[in-house]
Design brief:
Blueprint: H1 4-18, E1 23-28, H2 39-46, E2 50-57, E3 60-66, E4 77-83, E5 89-93, E6 103-109, E7 114-118, E8 125-129, H3 145-152, H4 159-164, H5 174-184, H6 197-216, E9 257-261, E10 264-268
Helix pairs in contact: 1-6, 3-6, 5-6
Length: about 270
């Protein structure tokens, strides 16, 4: 599933390409699993609207739109929420490019391009709402060290599980929890409440550092992830532990181990992480 860096990369790429464009028409596939809002509502809200901007909130892509003035709506704006699920892609294409299989929404734009949502496994979700979307938890890229530590103090769950709790810190998933813990030298099964102040400070710095680095490299392409142009990311080349089970640790040479924490495959170095 795309995590914060991948969603940020897609949102930034789409924003650069479609901000300011008018949506002239909306097509949807009729596959009910994909839509949290009724397809007719999505089409009604978006048709004729102008895209004010596209941003990331947690793992959700949020498209802010200015509604057509002639509609006489009580609200002058709305938000189109796009969750990529496990295999979702958001692509900006020209109409003469064949529509990929498993396309579920196409927004025709005023400059004769299309914004396409493609999702083979249909775990992605599309919806519209009037109020601003704030996400379920705190933002990892901007949270202060003190507030970060305060989220986890008093919690007896493993720190890996706590990092994955979207109601605490939204946007962090399996890849970047493993990579942040590896860079901080902390074992994923350590109880969150038993981390020291110094360990929380290291984890905060390593998490923000790994997220920024991954965004700079376009995310990690370990499955179906591509950006708005269909291009893969490169951060997987710098993974220290994720998906490296049995391979030597880049620091000490001891094989990377894989265990299960909170139902998720979890990778760590048994020597470098304590």
């Amino acid at each position: 599933m795309p995590e914060l860096p991948e969603v940020e990369t897609v949102a930034n790429g789409v924003n650069e390409r479609v901000r300011g464009q008018r949506i002239t028409s909306v097509w949807t596939s009729g596959k009910p699993q994909t839509f949290k809002s009724a397809e007719s509502e999505i089409a009604q809200v978006l048709t004729g609207a102008t895209i004010a901007g596209v941003r990331r909130v947690g793992k959700t892509i949020v498209m802010s739109v200015e509604l057509a003035a002639e509609r006489g709506s009580a609200s002058a704006s709305a938000e189109f929420l796009i969750h990529l699920g496990m295999t979702g892609r958001l692509l900006v294409s020209h109409p003469d490019v064949p529509l990929p299989p498993h396309s579920h929404a196409v927004l025709a734009l005023g400059d004769n391009r299309e914004l396409r949502f493609v999702d083979p496994r249909r775990f992605g979700r599309l919806s519209v709402q009037q109020q601003p979307y704030l996400g379920p938890g705190r933002e990892p890229l901007t949270i202060s060290p003190a507030d970060f530590a305060a989220l986890f103090r008093g919690r007896s769950t493993p720190i890996k599980a706590a990092l994955l709790n979207q109601s605490l810190l939204h946007g962090v998933g399996n890849i970047y929890a493993d990579e942040a813990l590896a860079r901080a030298g902390i074992r994923p099964r350590r109880q969150a409440c038993r981390l020291t102040r110094a360990e929380f400070a290291r984890l905060h710095a390593s998490l923000q550092g790994v997220l920024h680095r991954a965004i700079a490299l376009g995310g990690s392409s370990v499955s179906d992830y591509v950006d708005a142009d269909g291009v893969t990311g490169f951060f997987q080349l710098e993974h220290l532990v994720y998906a490296r089970e049995g391979l030597p640790c880049r620091s000490c040479g001891v094989p990377i181990r894989k265990i299960t924490v909170a139902g998720r495959g979890t990778h760590f170095c048994p020597t470098c992480q304590r």
